[in-house]
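Expect chain and fold; thus:
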Amino acid sequence: MASPSPSTTTPSKHSFESRLEAVKISKTDLNAVVMDYLISEGYPSAAHKFASEANIQPTSAVDSIQERVAIREAIFRGDIQSAIERINELNPMVRPPFSLPHNLPHPCHD
């Protein structure tokens, strides 16, 4: 009888995997982590579908995903002033309204 090839052998569990199995996480906590990820990373349709499939109520943060995605996109394209204005509109309590100083160089220009 031939010995099993490396591709067919079952790998042994690493200590991390063993410790991970020892941790008891509730389904509620796991669902909350997944929902938080979907919201914070800007996946509104996935968050709504996950909430429906997991039979949980989506948090109010789901409604602000599109605004947060727009802020992130403004930052990525270098439109910091627009991002600041959107942040101030979305949640004025984050910081007092402010704008960039006019003598500050644009981040895309040296």
